[in-house]
Amino acid sequence: TFNxxxxxxxxxxxxxxxxxxxxxxxxxxxxxxxxxxxxxKAFINVAAEAEQxxxxxxxxxANYKVLFMHGGGRxxxxxxxxNLFNADVNNGKNTADYVISGAxxxxxxxxxxxxxxxxxQDIRQKTDDNLRTIVDPAxxxxxxxxxxxxxxxxxxxxxxxxxNLPQTEIPIVADLSSTILSRPIDVxxxxxxxxxxxxxxxxSGLTLAIVREDLLPQTSSAIPAVLDYRLAAENDxxxxxxxxxxxxxAGLVFKWLKQQGGVTQMATRNQLKAxxxxxxxxxxxxxxxxxxxxxxxxxxxxxxxxDERLNDTFVEQAxxxxxxxxxxxxxxxxMRASIYNAMPIEGVQTLVSxxxxxxxxxx
Length: 363
Ligand code: PLP
Prior knowledge:
Layout lengths: L1 E2 L9 H10 L18 H18 L5 E6 L2 H13 L10 E6 L2 H10 L4 E6 L1 E3 L5 E3 L14 E3 L2 E2 L4 E2 L10 E4 L16 E5 L10 E6 L16 H6 L9 H16 L2 H22 L3 E2 L11 E6 L5 H10 L2 E2 L10 E4 L6 H18 L1
Parallel strand pairs: 1-15, 3-4, 3-7, 7-10, 10-11
Antiparallel strand pairs: 2-12, 5-6, 8-9, 11-12, 13-14, 14-16
Helix pairs in contact: 1-6, 2-6, 3-4, 7-9
The structure holds pyridoxal-5'-phosphate (PLP).
InterPro entries: Aminotrans_V_dom, Aminotrans_V_PyrdxlP_BS, Pser_aminoTfrase
Protein name: Phosphoserine aminotransferase
Function: Catalyzes the reversible conversion of 3-phosphohydroxypyruvate to phosphoserine and of 3-hydroxy-2-oxo-4-phosphonooxybutanoate to phosphohydroxythreonine.
């Protein structure tokens, strides 16, 4: 089967096989990795290796902390303002710029309002031919007194992705939950990067935060301890018990990514997968995607059937062909194919063949 779920998403087959082999008796310890102490030497080695592999993959500069946290993407919607309004460089500034490019950046705004003053800019637009697009980051209206700028460069629900960033000295905070490790990024352009693990990294329950050191909070009094970046950094992400199994599995995924040739190789593969699918959709009158080409996501591809009455049949028949979880997000409708790193090219080819056949029979 090929699983097109937006998250929790499919993991690389080789990683799943390795995890299965090691499941009960890990490293000859006589128990599973999920049953040993996070303070044991064996686990600390796993944790440190995972961090180093991630640093290598993303070329994370030395002045960034890599934090393995709990709480998911939404936990970070709170952690970011709680920490950054207290950051050393910000001296108590409590205003931030938030841009809305889709459902997830909007959800971050709703949470962010609890902690400070937000300048919110909705950058969603339509092109002349009614395609969904966004204001180019070079043209965002940013204030000059913000502690940070929050954005979501890949909108999982909307299928919108952007890669260029505004030129600014103000720290950019990016929710990369559904695009991290899918292509190279310049970490030094960001103040904070965060990502829930359950798409391109590993099982849910683990959340990555990559934080520039000068953005660690100055005072921790108002920050829940489990969301406190400084506490996490000072305790090697082990202030409280970390999600150990998810961390171990993320480590296997990072090793797999290195074996595949790293994020540059992933980018080549991901672009190819995305263009296979978009090209077919564009050629067909039976299917459509309504995102302007420049902002189409490589990771999440929403598409619609011309006759929506066929939606349920499409999903059912796809499942019978081993193509899982194609039903679109409830806010958008239609279909959505999430094609993260672990989705092989054959998965997308099989999907396109199925779509062709479905169109031939029902078109
Ligand atoms: N941000 C993005 C871009 C997402 O896609 C999601 C979930 O799909 C979230 C945040 C929320 O993540 P979580 O469910 O881990 O809180």
